[in-house]
Design a protein that fits this description.
By secondary structure, the protein is an alpha/beta fold. It is built from 16 helices and 23 strands.
Length: 540
């Protein structure tokens, strides 16, 4: 296996794939995918991608909507950069062959919550899948891009002399190796698996944020978790997202009596910001809530939402005749690793992109369909990446070791915590939070972290030596080490979310404190964390 690259991209969603296409072709690039190339959150995205292309729309209007949704925490420069470069990215996708829906030969655009104009481009109700398929095909054509699937990044490799990032340690094909590069891009997505109810795929375990935090990077606004209001709520069914585009096309949220209760909370009703709609549903307690598509013309439902029709039919729901039972679930992480406009973090040589990054675009509450756009717009910045001091491996690596270790006896403890942690986080750091619950959850997470760190398998991971290649002779070892690495990441991210949620004594966007329900002017600030220090940084 090649061990020396110009650029390592950890993650294979829209952010990572598009970054690989944008990077100068002179660079040797490796994409590290924890599962397969089509297993990211991007591939699951239904609704679409926002861009101000309509005749009555403009980047200024798109920017205003984004900032309004972000509730005072957006970075205006980042938002302006996003909306002004949106059209270029859409042109690029169209040129590549992404099959966006059209109306009268023009790109079709629909409306979603908190948008003042229809600006959501879509490909039926599987937009993310359509984009990922095209990006994957283009990446596979690139001779300078090497793909490593079923591969887990275990740690960042820091240069001990200047603390810059010079690569990663990687678990791949029953072997642990150290890969060196002039630049490392974290594009690992979100942390939805921290919570019991999430629309995210199984790979979303907060890996990038945890890796960066353990290496001393600054992270930002981690308390802001976006809950998607409409996820299929049927016993035994997966947390299948019912796209916001359904409400944009005229679907109604109703209670068991057929009343559109969300108007009690916001004049825009179902098209209010996601945090408002999610809390409106949460406030109904155990009473069933439904999304009614019968208000939409059947032919439009058939054309726009074939995937939703099929998924619901599989669970005995005929959307043409019955409303869909729904409830909120964790969908998107507004916070992440703090980055500049060029995606650089506080660690030299380390970059972050997509959901794992905090660009300042989303503020306290992401505007619908801005996430795919953010991936693409900020990935374009890598076209200008200059690696001034490319790394080369020493002539003599540390050598090859073999291990026959079997940690089966410890996996039961890991699996139990993996089961209990999401339930704890959903209960204590979910849609509505308060100090006592957060403190209780934090104490439990700290105890679990200590328990996990004392396991032999985690001591093995912490003792890995740079450049030492370790061959795993036990066939179970790779899955065991992956499981151990993921629970460490999940616990670290849970700790960071809880610390940030306790620190912010107000309610704003995706962070609601029932004991501090008001939005406070003195908290118009970012929450920052480095190591175990937490502080706030006021916006200009």
């Amino acid at each position: 296996m090649k061990q020396d690259f110009d650029v390592l991209i950890v993650g294979s969603g829209a952010a990572g794939l598009y970054a690989a296409l944008c990077l100068p072709s002179k660079y040797q690039i490796a994409i590290i995918s924890k599962e397969n190339l089509n297993s990211s959150s991007s591939d699951w995205a239904q609704g679409g991608i926002a861009a101000p292309l309509g005749l009555t729309d403009s980047p200024d209007l798109h920017g205003e909507d984004t900032i309004k949704a972000g509730q005072g925490i957006c970075e205006s420069e980042s938002v302006r950069f996003l909306v002004e470069n949106a059209a270029t990215c859409i042109d690029s996708l169209v040129e590549m062959g992404v099959p966006f829906d059209r109306h009268d030969h023009q790109l079709a655009m629909t409306l979603e919550a908190a948008h003042s104009h229809p600006r959501i481009l879509h490909s039926r109700d599987t937009t993310g899948q359509a984009i990922i398929e095209v990006l994957t095909a283009r990446v596979l054509e690139k001779a300078n891009v090497h793909i490593y699937e079923q591969a887990t990044a275990l740690s960042l490799w820091l240069n001990s002399q200047n603390n810059s990032c010079q690569g990663i340690s990687l678990l791949h094909e029953e072997t642990i190796r150290w890969l060196r590069a002039g630049a490392v891009i974290l594009a690992t997505g979100g942390c939805g698996q921290v919570f019991a109810k999430t629309t995210n795929p199984p790979v979303s375990t907060g890996d990038g944020a945890a890796l960066a935090w353990r290496s001393g990077a600054i992270l930002r606004d981690l308390e802001f978790i976006q809950f998607h209001p409409t996820v299929l709520n049927k016993s035994g069914a997966p947390n299948f997202l019912i796209s916001e585009a359904v409400r944009g096309e005229g679907g109604h949220l109703i209670d068991a009596q057929g009343r559109r209760f969300v108007f009690d909370y916001h004049p825009s009703g179902e098209l209010a910001p996601r945090d408002v709609v999610s809390r409106a549903i949460f406030d109904q307690g155990d009473r069933p809530i439904y999304l009614d598509l019968r208000t939409i013309a059947p032919e439009k439902i058939t054309h726009r939402f074939p995937n939703i029709i099929e998924k619901c039919r599989n669970w005995g729901i005929d959307v043409f005749h019955k409303p869909i039972p729904v409830s909120p679930a964790v969908h998107y992480w507004m916070g992440g690793i703090a980055v500049n406009l060029d995606n650089s973090t506080s660690i030299t040589g380390l970059y972050a992109l997509g959901e794992v990054a905090s660009t300042g675009v989303h503020g306290a509450n992401r505007l619908a369909s801005n996430s795919l756009l953010e991936c693409l717009v900020f990935a374009q910045q890598f076209a200008k990446l200059i690696i001034e001091n490319p790394h080369t491996l020493p002539e003599q690596p540390a050598g090859l070791l073999s291990t026959h270790q079997d940690w089966s006896a410890e996996m039961q403890k890991i699996e139990q915590i993996r089961k209990d942690l999401p339930i704890l986080m959903w209960r204590c750091a979910g849609i509505s939070r308060q100090r006592g619950d957060l403190q209780m959850a934090l104490a439990q997470v700290k105890q679990w972290k200590q328990d996990i760190d004392n396991l032999q398998i985690c001591e093995f991971l912490s003792s890995l030596h740079p450049l030492q290649v370790i061959k795993l002779e036990n066939i179970k070892a790779q899955s065991q080490l992956k499981g151990a690495a993921e629970i460490q990441n999940l616990l670290d991210v849970s700790y960071l979310i809880l610390m940030s949620a306790l620190f912010r004594n107000e309610s704003r966007g995706g962070h609601y404190r029932s004991d501090h329900p008001q939005t406070k002017p003195d908290w118009r600030a970012h929450t920052l964390i480095r190591h175990y220090d937490c502080w706030k940084s006021s916006l200009e």
